[in-house]
Amino acid sequence: MPANDACTPRPEHHFTFGLWTVGNVGRDPFGDPVRPAISPTRIVEKLAALGVYGVNLHDNDLVPRDATTAERDRIVSTFKRALADHGMCVPMATTNLFGDPLFRDGAFTSNDARVRRYALQKTMRAIDLGVELGATTYVFWGGREGVETNAAKDAQESVKWFRDAINFLCEYVRAQRYDLRFALEPKPNEPRGDIFLPTIGHMLAFLYTLDFPEMVGLNPEVAHDQMAGLDFTHGVAQALEAGKLFHIDLNAQKPGRFDQDLRFGSEDLKSAFFLVKLLEDSGWAGMRHFDSHAYRTEDEDGVWEFAAGSMRTYLILKEKVARFNADAEIQALLADLRARGAAPGQRVRYSENEARAIRDERFDLDALRAQGYGYERLDQLTMELLMGVR
Q1: Are 307 and 290 in contact (CB under 8 A)?
Q2: Which residues, in sequence order, are bridge partners of residue 31?
Q3: Surface-to-core class of residue 300, CB atoms within 10 Å of its CB (0-12 exposed, 13-18 middle, 19+ buried)
Q4: Cα-atom radius of gyration of the chain, to the nearest Å?
Q5: pLDDT tens sequence across 265-312
Q6: Which of 101, 110, 192 lies closest to 149 in space, CA to CA?
Q7: Residues with a known catalytic role
């Protein structure tokens, strides 16, 4: 593959992976690991060679939770040296608030106040680590923040506990004068039967109840919306329109399944295309983060094939977006829709004169009832473009 190939990943594309993604050892609920662990420094080396911009991490992806202070400092120093040696950075960090057995009832929403306080301690220390490594975005995924039975928790009180925690941590970041924004990650279920604040819409509504809503946005994930049967691109568009898309997790998912974290674009090509189109056409400047992992069938070579394929698929779809935007027939159909009033900026705004004009306007209802919109042709042309025959 030539180095100047438009579909060859380069750091300027801002692709990122997590230590936990390419470092996934293939364990599942029915089977033991199938791959040996890959050290964080080797992950940095291999990702840099693939043209990746940065690597993200949970606190315990790098530092074991029982490490001493001296061990922690040695591990972090070695990792920082690897980042510098390979021209990599850490744009985002997060905390593992789901793996330790003490989080079995949640972290910020546990019924035990001692667990909630420990979760704050662990998160403050992880924020310190993330900032030390250069992160400017901090993600919160409430994997255990939920219930199996509604008898267990007061849902209103649980939301208050979650709000208290985010408010507390916002204050902590402000007091430390850190340059850090928070991104909340919704998910409908798994590993809990039901997780609080399960969708993009729930999270958007919640963040405006916080003390510092300007510090908090979203980190939506493809698979999480598709698990709930939602159109991910619509949710991302709403977050973008609100100025709250702080980060994004890219992967793929078969509808109705458990959270599969498949290679981006591997199961939902048309959906992935319109997501790439939204991000690229909007000029969104954030990281393109792949929160996914290689098939359990793979050895380490397969892991790096997975990583390279994730990025290449995104770039191929980016090229398809450019073709879509330049396709004369597609653009003619879209121009017709714009001429009917679908162009950006053609929105109604109230004034007395406008209200009077609309109230008195005469509509040819028979013509409106009879008109078609050409969406079948538009969709077919999109499919032909994606299948490579246009």
Answers
A1: yes
A2: 28
A3: middle
A4: 23
A5: 999 999 999 999 999 999 999 999 999 999 999 999 999 999 999 999
A6: 192
A7: 58, 61
Going by C-alpha positions, the residue among 191, 313, 329 that lies closest to residue 252 is: 313
- The three state secondary structure string of 352-385 is HHHHHHHHHCCCCHHHHHHCCCCHHHHHHHHHHH
CB 245 within 8 A of CB 273: no
pLDDT at 20 over 90: yes
CA pair distance 51, 311, nearest whole angstrom: 9
Strands 194-195 and 288-290 come out as unpaired
CA-nearest of 204, 210, 125 to 172 is 125
Percentage of the chain exceeding pLDDT 70: 99
Mean pLDDT along residues 209-232: 97
Q: pTM for this structure?
A: 0.97
Q: Which of 244, 263, 240, 238 is nearest to 252 (CA)?
A: 263
What ranges make up the beta strands (E) of 37-96?
Answer: 54-58, 92-94
- Which domains, and CATH codes, for the chain? 11-325 (3.20.20.150), 327-386 (no CATH)
Residue with tokens 């290689």: 294
3-state secondary structure string, 282-333?
HCCCCCEEECCCCCCCCCHHHHHHHHHHHHHHHHHHHHHHHHHHHCHHHHHH
> Is 221's pLDDT higher than 70?
yes
pLDDT tens-digit readout, 124-167: 999 999 999 999 999 999 999 999 999 999 999 999 999 999 99
> Can you give the pLDDT at residue 5?
86
